[in-house]
Specification:
Chain A: It comes from Planotetraspora mira. The complex is a heterodimer of chains A (495) and B (332). With 495 residues, chain A is an alpha/beta fold. Helix content of chain A is 33%, strand content 27%. Chain A has two domains: 234 residues, Rossmann fold (3-Layer(aba) Sandwich), CATH 3.40.50; 237 residues, Rossmann fold, CATH 3.40.50. Helix content of chain B is 69%, strand content 3%. Classes of the chains: A alpha/beta (495), B mainly alpha (332).
Chain lengths: 495, 332
């Protein structure tokens, strides 16, 4: 299946976001699409998948002009899309999710034995045999849920498979099975359109690379003819000196100390300290209890035992409001579920934590709030610049993440906990976030950076805590350790 | 009336490039305001042209009075719906507060008796909210139980209608300021203050945000439970007030009054584009919804349509209005 886009344009209510994109993908190709946030990748995907229609231009499949009015039209033409946001139904089994509405029947009733067998066969045929089709999808790890999502897209044997950040939640052997799957799809002559921020992956997998910037394709290249740093330079529109800022600072007084903190079933006997001006990494694999720890320290979940101390004094956070009053801020891992109120404006979202403090009589001091929020938008260069009245869901992923950060910075915290702040965020926003964290630490903030990205945790921090199965199994200095050493602690096999 | 709940200064451009105020909240590019005004204008026009009695002062005054109950209940309902909840108990609260007030009039000063009626509504709202927030019970179930409990209590208080003789009892429901009934002004004031509350105060914004994403709000250090209780209390207060006003207007309080009033209130919110999932809804559009409902009722009455057919027609009209909204939204 050869897919061809010619001069595709898209505008939303008069604002054009794609300015004539040309793209050609051939059978057996892995076409990687890379670009900064707001570059237009998501819009492009939505057009390919039929979720949005283009305003101008044409799309051809094997030379024949096609027009998608709905995702159903795209499906009918053999195009399947796997989005970053999962769409599986957690309360149904893997089998039901995969076969949805397409069950083998016997005398008019669903033949469950046959259904499970078919799902098993399907999963094995794509190399995801490790997933038991009888499990409830919601009980699987996020990584496995993502794999079910991909398997679901493959049920109908599409000729074009669009993957939006498929590897964002995958690691280790799961990632390896995804790569193996993509190679097998290539051999079968499927065109894979692969959108990713992980350039190392793109270099490894892609047969051709398209760089999108400001709604245009600015370069089409191949892994053999380019390099990661060249791609970053193209995406960001500037030369890349260094991703991580130099960290050479003297930590100040203790801002937060945690002693023997335990929450039964999630983590046990965790102790650590955070000092002013320090960036401490917290690394752990999925299920190590790192996010649960952060939520508990922040007062979102009660601890079974242990203490949290702020600047010397014992505190007991009964609710996040107590933690916020003590100067803590928590940027959660999942911005859609716990970071943003999607239906509200950027202004409302950024002002959420601070609105009770910005009152004039019973009313919100609207002028002051707007001014403070716009300062933040400016300081974090959230795009578009005049987005205060826009609904926050209309921002791109990276800018949404910046909005969550802005919300917490407005509360002027003394301790900032960041849970996977760069997940699903493109490279140039990442760099901006690292710079900002560094600046904040230099101004005396204590930062806990939770991450499952080894390079990040090594590059952006002073000190690293490693968790394995709910316990802290190692504390390492970032300038004296290696990825291998961190990983060894994370899987509980350190010497 | 302050309307927009999710966006401060929403305008959109029509195909000819003119700026048009936008009514449907949630950032969708729909010029629903125009559609709404057209619908209401059309209803009025049809009424004026086809029923001679429509534009008479008596009928207009009646209309203005009739919209008070639905209006008050709808505002309270909107607040609850914004949190993602529902309040089915308001019809029963109307009956209870009315009958208690009428019963107390003989022994207490009238304003005090009326205050007791309103306070009873506040109390029921508090209990609803507390059960929902504290024990994380489903709003539908809690307020369904409240619907039957409070209705029962109204009958326990008095099985028979109570008609106070003191003419002071009728003042609230029948007094006018110039041509406008005082009760209508009270309702308008509730919408006005309510609009400011929902768009410009921290608790109001919190209520809207909770319906959008309660966990985000909790992690932002806002006490979600307290705001949910507040929302049901507001709804209870509105229902209590509606009960007192209705009893005063009719001149007689009945324990059986207000059956299915909650449905009209929900309908007004939904016609106004509120999402029953929470987080999306508009005070101005809800007021529009109230107007549409009341006009339809009035029109059908003037035509002398049999009341059962009125119910059928009202249901069909609600579906039609929502379908129009839906297609508009999808098109955008």
């Amino acid at each position: 299946m050869t897919l061809e886009l010619r001069g595709v344009r898209k505008d939303y209510g008069g604002v054009e976001v794609l300015h004539g994109v040309d793209l050609v993908g051939r059978p057996g190709e892995v076409l990687a699409v890379v670009g900064a946030n707001g570059a237009g990748k998501s819009t492009l995907i939505k057009i390919l998948s039929g979720a949005q229609s283009m305003s101008a231009g044409e799309m051809r499949m094997d030379g024949e002009a096609v027009e998608f009015r709905s995702p159903h039209d795209a499906h009918a033409r053999g195009i399947r899309t796997v989005y970053q946001e999962l769409s599986i139904v957690p309360g149904l089994s893997v089998t039901e999710n995969l076969l949805m509405g397409n069950f083998p029947k016997r005398r008019g009733l669903i033949d469950w034995a046959a259904a499970h067998a078919r799902a098993k066969e399907l999963l094995e045929s794509i190399g995801f045999g490790a997933i038991d089709p009888r499990t409830l999808a919601g009980r699987l790890s996020v990584a496995r849920q993502q794999m079910v999502e991909i398997a679901k897209a493959l049920v109908s044997e599409p000729r074009v498979l669009v993957l939006d950040e498929p590897s964002a939640v995958l690691a280790g052997s799961d990632l390896a099975s995804l790569f193996a799957l993509i190679r097998r799809l290539r051999e079968r002559g499927v065109l894979v359109i692969y959108v990713s921020h992980r350039l190392a992956e793109v270099m490894e997998l892609a047969t051709s690379i398209v760089v999108v910037k400001d709604g245009r394709v600015i370069a089409t290249t191949e892994p053999a003819r380019t390099s990661e740093s060249e791609l970053i330079g193209l995406m960001a529109g500037r030369r890349l000196e260094q991703i991580y800022p130099d960290r050479r600072t003297e930590p100040g007084e203790v801002r937060l100390s945690v002693h023997g903190l335990t929450r039964r079933g999630e983590f046990e006997d965790v102790s650590f300290t955070l000092r002013a001006g320090e960036i401490v990494g917290l690394f752990g694999l999925v299920g190590s209890g790192r996010s649960e720890l952060a939520r508990c320290v922040f007062g979102a979940e009660p601890a079974t035992s242990g203490q949290v101390k702020i600047a010397g004094g014992d505190v007991r956070f009964r609710a996040p409001s107590d933690a916020i009053a003590a100067g803590l801020a928590l940027v959660t891992e999942d911005r859609k579920r716990t970071g943003l109120v999607g239906g509200m404006s950027v202004l409302d979202n950024i002002g959420l934590t601070t609105m009770y403090g910005m009152r004039r009589g019973p009313l919100i001091d609207a002028a002051r709030r707007r001014e403070r929020v716009e300062e933040m938008i400016d300081r974090l260069s959230i795009q578009p610049a005049h987005c205060a009245s826009m609904r926050v869901v209309n921002l791109s992923g990276g800018n949404q993440q910046k909005a969550v950060l802005a919300k917490w910075l407005l509360a002027e915290p003394r301790v900032l906990i960041l849970d996977e702040p760069t997940r699903g965020v493109d490279m140039s926003t990442r760099i901006a976030i690292y710079r900002m964290i560094d600046d904040l630490a230099r101004d005396g903030l204590a930062v806990l950076l939770i991450s499952s990205d080894l390079t990040e945790v090594l590059g952006a921090t002073d000190r690293i805590l490693v968790m394995n199965q709910g316990r802290v199994t190692g504390e390492l200095r970032s300038d004296r350790t290696t990825e291998d050493e961190i990983l060894a602690h994370a899987i509980g096999q350190a010497a | 009336m302050t309307g927009q709940l999710t966006e401060p200064a929403p305008t959109t451009t029509d195909p000819r490039g003119r700026r048009v105020p936008r009514l449907v909240v949630g950032g969708r590019d729909v010029t629903m305001a125009a559609a709404f005004v057209t619908l209401i204008a059309a209803l009025v026009l049809v009424a004026a042209l086809t029923a001679d009695t429509f534009l008479t002062p008596t009928n207009i005054t009646n209309l203005l009075k009739q919209m008070v109950t639905t209006g008050l209940l709808s505002f309270g309902m909107l607040v609850v719906i914004l949190t993602g909840g529902i309040d089915l108990s308001v019809g029963s609260i109307v009956a209870f507060s009315g009958i208690v007030t009428a019963g107390l009039v003989s022994g207490l000063p009238i304003p005090v008796a009326m205050a007791v009626g309103v306070v009873s509504g506040i109390g029921f709202g508090l209990v609803n909210g507390a059960l929902i927030a504290r024990f994380e019970l489903a709003p539908f179930v809690v307020t369904l139980a409240a619907l039957t409990t409070i209705r029962g209590l109204a009958f326990v208080y008095s099985e028979v209608p109570i008609a106070p003789e003191d003419p002071g009892f009728f003042t609230l429901g029948s007094a006018t300021l110039g041509p406008v009934p005082v009760s209508t002004l009270i309702m308008l004031a509730v919408f006005l203050v309510g609009g400011v509350f929902l768009t410009r105060t921290p608790p109001g914004r919190s209520i809207v945000a909770i319906g959008g994403n309660a966990e985000t709000v909790r992690l932002a250090g806002i006490n979600v439970r307290r705001h949910v209780v507040l929302a049901y209390t507001i709804s209870g207060a509105c229902a209590g007030l509606a009960g007192v006003v209705l009893a005063s207007r009719v001149g007689i309080a009945q324990p059986s009054v207000g059956v299915a009033f909650e449905l009209d209130a929900i309908a007004a919110c939904v016609i106004g584009g509120a999402s029953l999932a929470g987080g999306r809804g508009s005070v101005r559009a809800t007021f529009g919804g109230v107007l549409v409902l009341v006009l339809i009722n009035n029109l059908l009455n003037l035509y002398g349509v049999q009341s059962f057919w009125q119910q059928v027609l009202k249901g069909l009209i609600i579906i039609a209005v929502i379908l129009v909204q839906r297609t508009n939204r999808v098109r955008s």
